[in-house]
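Figure 6 in text form: structure in, sequence out.
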């Protein structure tokens, strides 16, 4: 293992406190903040530089594994019914690189020849799930070096173009990385991060380029590209819908992989639905319906679509609960019938055995695979 030469412990410069106005009581530092700072300082002095980096990395890996399990558990009136189950999804290369077939993203992340990955797919295709699964694999992996997964939901960067802009985005990104890796009681400084990154200890996951508007993307995408150039030994995965990625010209060197579509009548889909308690008793009838409804079957190409369609089929004999109406309407926008003799609303109404009024209320206007091109 390559040893790292360390200088004396450094500290991040802190601006001097503001002088309180005359007559105002002095501001008290929160006790817990002071205690954490003292604990981190003591640990940094007790442990040698490299040992501190290793121990603090392991602490973050444990926290990241816990966050991954929570993110993958599923929540809400739809995903909350998945019982924490996930379909086994694979990705395939777009236009190369040669030698790759269908592969699990978690396996791909560990490939030294694929350090820059663009994960593409439509809404609900499983991009976020695959990224959290890969991050958990990295966090739970054993090895001689503690590789640190760092996961960002890019929607948390919304508005940075107005609040930070191009001049400050690199510093903001570094601050976010340090905040993410610094698992109490361990605090990382910028030099800690640079030492770890120079040895390839970090894998960055940026989820949801499509969550940024054009103005924010013009700031954030170059920052991600700059991070890739500055730390070539670190892995970087960025996910996006295909249309959003076309505008990210700074990431053109990333190897593009696409989430493979789901086969709603395949064995994986059957095992996935049969493992979900709330739909298990309806799987047989649901699959029989799909065998005769080719347009609907063709539309269920993602795990989210498949799950929602199974839930609606389960609820076919009763009115759709109000809390599901918007979710079902938004998620079923991609169904469009090629049979022009019937409107899409009429076809789906017949499928669900609901009244036309209930179907119109829940599905609104059906569109053709919105946002996937």
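Output sequence:
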């Amino acid at each position: 293992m390559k040893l790292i030469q360390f200088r004396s412990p450094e500290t991040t410069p802190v601006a001097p406190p503001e002088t309180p106005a005359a007559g105002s009581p002095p501001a008290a530092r929160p006790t817990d903040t002071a205690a954490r700072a003292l604990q981190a300082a003591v640990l940094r002095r007790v442990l040698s530089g490299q040992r501190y980096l290793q121990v603090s990395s392991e602490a973050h890996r444990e926290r990241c594994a816990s966050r991954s399990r929570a993110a993958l558990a599923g929540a809400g009136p739809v995903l909350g019914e998945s019982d924490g189950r996930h379909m086994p999804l694979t990705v395939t290369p777009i236009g190369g690189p040669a030698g790759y077939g269908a592969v699990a993203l978690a396996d791909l992340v560990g490939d030294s020849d694929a350090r820059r990955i663009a994960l593409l797919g439509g809404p609900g295709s499983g991009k976020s799930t695959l990224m959290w699964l890969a991050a958990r694999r990295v966090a739970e992996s054993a090895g001689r070096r503690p590789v640190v997964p760092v996961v960002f939901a890019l929607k948390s960067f919304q508005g940075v173009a107005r609040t930070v802009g191009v001049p400050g985005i690199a510093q903001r990104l570094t601050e976010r990385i340090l905040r993410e890796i610094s698992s109490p009681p361990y605090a990382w400084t910028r030099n800690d991060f640079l030492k770890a990154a120079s040895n390839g200890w970090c894998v960055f996951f940026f989820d949801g380029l499509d969550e940024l508007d054009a103005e924010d993307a013009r700031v954030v995408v170059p920052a991600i590209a700059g991070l890739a150039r500055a730390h070539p030994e670190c892995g970087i995965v960025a996910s996006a819908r295909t249309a959003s990625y076309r505008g990210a010209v700074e990431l053109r060197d990333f190897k593009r992989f696409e989430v493979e579509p789901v086969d709603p009548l395949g064995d994986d889909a059957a095992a996935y639905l049969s493992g979900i308690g709330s739909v298990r008793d309806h799987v047989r009838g649901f699959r029989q319906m799909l065998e005769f409804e080719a347009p609907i079957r063709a539309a269920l190409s993602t795990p989210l679509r498949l799950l929602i369609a199974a839930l609606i089929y389960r609820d076919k004999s009763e009115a759709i609960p109000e809390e599901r109406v918007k979710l079902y309407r938004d998620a079923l926008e991609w169904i469009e019938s090629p049979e022009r003799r019937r409107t899409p609303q009429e076809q789906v109404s017949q499928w669900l055995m609901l009244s036309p009024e209930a179907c119109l209320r829940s599905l609104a206007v059906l569109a053709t695979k919105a946002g996937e091109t």
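Caption detail: The first helix runs from residue 31 to 46.
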